[in-house]
């Protein structure tokens, strides 16, 4: 067994230096985009509409904020993949880096439940090295049938840790969902599951460590993660150099990304109106 340590940033940053980054992934035939909600609000709106619809499909609407603007304020960065037609087929968002255990939604999920003190302890131990929390992960049913897309989706957390320069990320979800993310080296925390958002579900916590994921992840996933982390790191460096030369802090999207985003505007607005209309009838 070969242990590989990947360390691309020395200290966690409060905010990501890159407001926008994107690239084409040929295996999944998708464009990956990572951005702040304010940088591409139409794209974030479509991502959020998809997340709300996904949660509603599984009967857990109570576990997600249905208001796009409120969700955007709670999002440091979001990650989406769009197909060749410009449709979002999956995404995640992240909060953090966390400043204290109280910043994590996991505290709410385990409140007054067995394991609450352990959750607080795990967060407190890791926060000095940097922790982000992955939230509202979803994938379109068509996208989930493509194994390359599902694997790319599972690697999203490492793309985000690279941008923030943190060592850890965590997520909470039903056990069967987290099983699909084990391929990237995630480990389920040894604590009792919590019935969140209700008694139908047994929610667990999973942790990823950027320093040791190579030991636990699938070799093909590990190889892809290392390549993608290095690519993001290079783009950050190139962007920093470009800003220094131009004297501007702004980042511009690539022509491919601008084309993808332009196709979202009308569709995102329409879908958002539909979700709000449907939510008016929810008792």
Describe the structure.
With 283 residues, the chain is an alpha+beta fold. 42% of the residues lie in helices and 18% in strands. It is built from 12 helices and 8 strands. The chain has an 8-stranded mixed β-sheet. Helix 1 packs parallel to helix 12 and helix 7 (156-164) runs parallel beside helix 10. Residues 1-18 and 246-283 have low confidence and may be disordered.
Query: In whole angstroms, how far apart are the ends?
Result: 54 Å
Mean pLDDT over the residues: 82
C-alpha geometry: globular
Give the radius of gyration.
Answer: 18 Å
Task: Count every helix, treating DSSP H or I runs of 4 or more residues as helices.
Answer: 12
Low-confidence region ranges = 1-18, 246-283
The ordered H/E elements are EEHHEEHHEHHHEHEEHHHH
Structural class: alpha+beta
Q: Which strand-content bin applies to the residues?
A: 15-25%
- The largest sheet has its strands arranged as 1-2-3-4-5-6-8-7
Largest sheet: 8 strands, mixed
Q: Summarize the amount of helix as a percent range.
A: 40-55%
Write down how many β-strands occur, each being a DSSP E stretch of 2 or more residues. Answer: 8
Q: Outline of this structure?
A:
The protein has 283 residues and is α+β, with helices and mostly antiparallel strands.
Chain-wise SSE layout:
Elements: E1 20-25, E2 30-35, H1 41-57, H2 68-73, E3 77-82, E4 88-95, H3 106-109, H4 116-126, E5 131-139, H5 141-144, H6 147-154, H7 156-164, E6 168-174, H8 175-179, E7 187-188, E8 203-209, H9 213-216, H10 219-246, H11 255-262, H12 265-279
Parallel strand pairs: 5-6
Antiparallel strand pairs: 1-2, 2-3, 3-4, 4-5, 6-8, 7-8
Helix pairs in contact: 1-12, 7-10
């Amino acid at each position: 067994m070969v242990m590989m340590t990947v360390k691309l940033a020395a200290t966690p940053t409060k905010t990501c230096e890159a407001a926008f980054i994107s690239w084409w992934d040929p295996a999944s035939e998708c464009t990956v985009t990572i951005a702040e909600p304010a940088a591409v609000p139409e794209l974030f709106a479509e991502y959020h509409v998809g997340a709300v619809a996904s949660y509603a499909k599984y009967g857990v609407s109570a576990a997600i904020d249905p208001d796009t603007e409120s969700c955007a304020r709670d999002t440091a960065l979001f990650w989406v993949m769009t197909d060749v037609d410009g449709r979002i087929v999956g995404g995640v968002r992240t909060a953090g880096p966390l400043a204290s255990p109280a910043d994590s939604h996991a505290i709410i999920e385990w409140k007054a439940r067995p394991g609450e003190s352990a959750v607080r302890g795990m967060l407190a131990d890791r926060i000095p090295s940097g922790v982000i929390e992955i939230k509202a992960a979803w994938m379109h049913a068509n996208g989930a049938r493509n194994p390359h897309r599902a694997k790319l989706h599972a690697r999203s957390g490492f793309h985000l840790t690279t941008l923030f320069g943190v060592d850890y990320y965590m997520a909470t979800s039903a056990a069967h969902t987290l099983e699909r993310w084990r391929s990237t080296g995630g480990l389920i925390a040894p604590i009792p599951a919590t019935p969140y958002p209700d008694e139908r579900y047994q929610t667990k916590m999973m942790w990823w460590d950027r320093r040791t994921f190579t030991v636990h992840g699938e070799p093909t996933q590990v190889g892809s993660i290392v390549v993608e982390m290095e690519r993001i790191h290079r783009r950050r460096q190139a962007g920093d150099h470009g800003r220094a030369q131009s004297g501007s802090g702004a980042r511009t999207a690539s022509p491919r990304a601008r084309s993808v985003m332009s196709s979202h505007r009308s569709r995102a607005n329409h879908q958002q109106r539909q979700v709000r209309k449907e939510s008016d009838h929810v008792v």
